[in-house]
M20/M25/M40 family metallo-hydrolase (Nicoliella spurrieriana), 450 residues
Amino acid sequence: MTEHTFYEYVKAHTTDFFDYIRFRSISAQNQEIPETADWLVQQFNALNAQQATKWNDQGGNPVVFAEFKGHSDKTILFYNHYDVQPPEPLAEWRSDPFEPTVNDGKIYARGICDDKGELMSRLTAIQYFQTHGGLPVNVKFFVEGGEEVGSPHIEDYVAAHREALSSDVCIWEGGGKDENDHFQITCGLKGIVDFDLSVTTADKDIHSSLAAYAPNAAWRLVQALASLRSPDGKVLVKGFYDDIEPLDDTTRAFISKMQFNAEKAANNVGLKRSLITDDPAYQLVNGATMTINGISSGYEGDGIKTIIPKAASAKADCRLAPGQDPEKVFDLISKQLVANGFTDVKLHYNIGEKPFRTNMNDPFVKLNERVAKSVYGNNVAVIPNTPGGGPAYPFYDVLHDPILMVGIHYAGSGPHAPNEHIRVTDYQQGTVFMMELLDAYGKEGEADAK
Ligand SMILES: [Zn+2]
């Protein structure tokens, strides 16, 4: 099987799964969820899955699970989601968001990048092998329908179906090319804890002349917040950094080679002050942060209103590095507020996701890198983890698989935005990469068996 054959095949079959895009599977609006899940089960069956089924037992939108038998004993598990973001604002779309539109070498549609295109690409790879002598490895699919609303049931599904999901390695939904058009292999995700703070200092707003004696909720809250973080971004919560895993040499070497363009980063958003760190590369990979997302209190309208606000509230998040735990971090923050004398500041836990990082020395990382170089040349970057998050941790924790993110989009794809798109060539290359990867992983399995 030469690369040429793969390319020819992918070019001839680029539009095979376009029907998938035509479902308006918008989880936030509860649209066409059962229809999309049923369609997927049908597709998996048409591709001769050993098993294709819907799981409903843990609540929420059904998870579509499928299993294919291959020639070697190795098993790859793919994670994808069939739900998409709402297409609004509709006026900004240049084509129907639910009609895949090829224009200028790009495919436009809601979900083509995040995340239906990824699954279409993977189905095309499966289709190739199923019509050319069978799959080189066992393949399983976990396709959920609630990712865009926070994957509320994912932990329960993974725990309840750990046996069915057992696998050697896992490939996560997304990935692709960075700003420099380098193909990325991403080994992990940061975690997050998201929480609200609030304080009430009176039953009603008070005339500001009485600031002579009355406490002020806005001051109270900003002083509480200021006690948690220094101006240079250091979190002043006892024990906050303690659980961060020390970096191994490979990860350290990666960070030292990272080319962070401070000027470009600043210009992208028009930063008015200098960066808060001397080492942004390290901070992006392994730094933990505390961020105020918004604060409200008192009078915020036009003109003058001289009051003392009775209440104040804020929204905040912490991005967490591998090793940290969202619930524990939340607990440490509450304790610190009490220790700092802010017993009246109330905290509310919204969501948490644990971080993880696959060992960058894992043989599956090396295999991905080797295969990627055969498809993309030297423009390949192995990334320890993204600064963002996702619901991958339960798979890592329960299945003990290395998890990698590789995919078909590029830096301009605009997921969640109007005119979401991918480039046809990236789609085809990414699909060839996946075919090569399955092929190479199968050969590894055969070599192991000997
Ligand atoms: Zn996604």
Remarks:
- Residues 81, 114-115, 147, 173-174 surround zinc ion (CB under 6 Å).
- The chain has a mean pLDDT of 95.
- Residues 396 and 403 are 7 Å apart (CA to CA).
- The radius of gyration is 24 Å.
